[in-house]
Amino acid sequence: MDPIRNPYAPGAGQRPPELAGRDDQLDAFDVVLERVARGRPERSVVLTGLRGVGKTVLLNALRSAAVRARWGTGKLEARPEQTLRRPLAAALHVAVRELGHPAGDQVDHVLGVIKGFAQREAGAGVKLRDKWNPGIDAAVVVGRADSGDIEIDLVELLTDVGGLAADVGRGVGVFIDEMQDLGPDDVSALCAACHEISQSGLPVIVVGAGLPHLPAVLSASKSYSERLFRYQRIDRLGRSEADRALVAPASDEDASFTPEALEAMYAATAGYPYFIQAYGKVAWDVAPRSPITADDVAVAAPEAEAELGVGFFGSRYERATPAEREYLRAMADAALAAVDAGEDVDEIESVPTSEVARILGKKPQSLSPARDALLKKGLIYSGERGRIAFTVPHFGRYLRSQS
């Protein structure tokens, strides 16, 4: 089959040709956009899920919906080593420009507030040449969103941006990927600002995406966060949705899959969107003709698994230190031992931390540095006290295959 016409697109955050299984989230967000623009109360949105389920793709799709509604939008990716001020200022700069407010002096004022908010990261008394320039031509507004207290400053900043949006009858959306990587102070400030903005009825919402433990991160920061956000768990696709993700793009290229091929694809991918794209791309390339058959899928499987082993699994494994890799392997062994013992093991292979320590022959306390480092790197997470799980589906299987 012609590789140039191959419709499948495995890639980090890359939108697949058919965004299957996310219609409910897209429809619900359209309602949120319209309600907020009309001054109706609505909660901000948080998407959670494992790696490879398409959170970033959906986040981008929601932002596109906001752009079509003529909202001002800005996106940032949280990083553990970076504070919120600079990336948020850059995101809001884009959002204000997208709003197209007709009053230039009011726009310049808000841009000046954004600039002051960003430059306050350098601290008081820093010389002008040493301050970061966010690329905003407007003069810095002094005395607004520049106190140095991130919670106070963020409330003032979003209030001013929200007022600008209200003037033109639209809204502003701030889209935050990898939201679990925000620092504790920034998380607390963001929750407080969302709470204040919601109470004020201003048309500003935050749409965050992160790993399954993100709700716990938010709850630990502010006890009212469970009422502040609308949480949506993004999961793997069911069989019919997974079939649609394969069949619709193929149909657009005058190709098809046999029923047996679709069954084999679902068995191989377990419905994870990233895996569907990875296997679909290779199956298309190896198939001599349409329809793609189960035999084609069988031929494609080793190559697809090899590519996932390098790009999806291997790149994450390489980020771990030797001690952290030992911990990861012990988690995989603990999950396999549970299966062999006839215990139910979930898809993320969550295991007790005490069992990991037993396999390694060490006290649980001595393993805390490795576990904490893996948590910070986003390779594992703790969904409940005393248990740990991979953030990457099928990671345990990959690790066991490397032994």
Word description of this protein:
The structure is a single chain. The protein is α/β, with parallel strands linked by helices and 403 residues long. The protein folds into three domains: 23-233, 3-Layer(aba) Sandwich (Rossmann fold); 246-317; 322-402, Winged helix-like DNA-binding domain superfamily/Winged helix DNA-binding domain (Arc Repressor Mutant, subunit A, Orthogonal Bundle). It is built from 16 helices and eight strands. It is globular and about 65 Å long. The two termini are 36 Å apart. The relative contact order is 0.13. The mean pLDDT is 91.
Task: Summarize this structure briefly.
Keywords: ATP-binding, Heme, Iron, Metal-binding, Nucleotide-binding. With 403 residues, the chain is α/β, with parallel strands linked by helices. It is 53% helix and 9% strand.
The level of helicity is 40-55%
Q: Tell me about the largest β-sheet.
A: 5 strands, parallel
Briefly note the structural class of the backbone: alpha/beta
Parts with pLDDT < 50 across at least 5 consecutive residues: none
Helix run count: 16
CATH architecture of the largest domain: 3-Layer(aba) Sandwich
Share of β-strand residues: 5-15%
Shape: globular
Kindly give the count of domains: 3
Alpha-carbon distance between the two ends: 36 Å
Order of helices and strands: HEHEHHHEHEHHEHHHHHEHHEEH
CATH topology assignment of the largest domain: Rossmann fold
CATH class of the largest domain reads Alpha Beta
- How many strands appear in the DSSP assignment? 8
Let me know the average pLDDT.
Answer: 91
